[in-house]
Amino acid sequence: MSKLFIFFTFIALAFGVFANGSENDTLGIYEIKIGDFSIKVTNFGARIVSVIVPDKNGKLDDIVLGFDTAQDYQESKNNYGAIVGRVANRISGAKFTLNGTVYKLIPNDGNGTNTIHGGPKGFAQVAWKVDKIVKNCKSPYITLTYNSSDGDQGFPGAVIASVTYQLKKPYTLIVKMCAKALNKATPINLAQHTFWNIRGHNTGNILSHELRLFASYITEQDEKQIPTGKLLPVKNTAYDFLKLREINEQMEKLPNSSKGYDINYVVDDGLKHEMKPVAVVYDEKSGRIMRLSANMPGVQLFTANSAKNVTGKGGFVYQTHAALCLETQGFPDSVNQPDFPSQIVYPGGVYDHRMVFTFSTKK
């Protein structure tokens, strides 16, 4: 076990042996909190395990889907709560060309033709190192890092990535994702893949949640969910969340073949690499409101379309549409779409991705 695990004071709530590392690599779940506001994180995939906030009556609930132990996440093979990368979302044909060289990746999507979320052993499926955890202060935080080697899943160059989860009053969660290309130019596009149900992770589906997205366009995609390169306006379509709308009401307008949402939205003013509003989620029953801002050009809306009989925390069984994901990101398949914002980071450059979640309530 590394000296960092001995040195830092942490709450280790669950442990397991990490199969992809050495026998001494230990998985844990760590907690930071301010008053009644707390989160838990596991170093397996640098995942958010829980977010606990009060409802309109002061009742505390965990509003994140997930599992009880770090080993459960390892065995589940999904992306609940994870940092996904080196390149989040889909890359067509599991390959791309950079500076005249064709890089072939490991396909794991689209019947074995495309790559998604960095490949079968992407950043979500490895143990990260807990670099620092600071508690008992006004703004507690935890920082985790991962070193990705040259050729990892087929990507060029070595990369060091980090994520910091930080709490601030009142009920604000800050996520900072950074990465450096150490020796070669390489694409980097990290995403935070938490599954949210702001009524409570064990309350059923999110179809009655109301959603607003500050996004006037989507990236059109083909039947394999690969962008065509076109941007389509959402106004007066099933994808229109320009004002607060019930998710189910809009979902019913989707084509009969659709099972829910899984598509990239173009954030308004998204090309400006600065913080901007992305989304608002509201649940009338609990009175909870979640606001999201970020500095990325896109956000993937996903409504847990494939969840079925997933046994989660406390033995609760998650079903279809049990949560929604709001994954701020660069556009999918940007490495093969010259008109999309570039995701290439050169040696000496820094990838910087920030998200701010603010939780509140109304009666």
TrEMBL record:
Q: Which CDD domains match?
A: galactose_mutarotase_like
Q: Which reaction does it catalyse?
A: alpha-D-glucose = beta-D-glucose
Recall the GO molecular function terms of this protein's record.
Answer: aldose 1-epimerase activity
What parts of the sequence cross the membrane?
A: none
Q: Which UniProt keywords apply?
A: Carbohydrate metabolism, Isomerase, Signal
Q: Any keyword Isomerase?
A: yes
Under which main EC class is this enzyme filed?
isomerase
Summarize where beta-D-galactose binds, as residue positions.
N89, R90, D262
Pathway annotation from the record? Carbohydrate metabolism; hexose metabolism
Secretion signal span: 1-19
What is this enzyme's EC? 5.1.3.3
Q: Which Gene3D superfamilies match?
A: 2.70.98.10
InterPro entries in the record, alphabetically? Aldose_1-epimerase (IPR015443), Aldose_1/G6P_1-epimerase (IPR008183), Gal_mutarotase_sf_dom (IPR011013), Galactose_mutarotase-like (IPR047215), GH-type_carb-bd (IPR014718)
Pfam families the record matches: Aldose_epim
Q: Which residues form the active site?
A: H193 (proton donor), E327 (proton acceptor)
UniProt lists the family membership as follows: Belongs to the aldose epimerase family.
For this entry, the protein name equals Aldose 1-epimerase
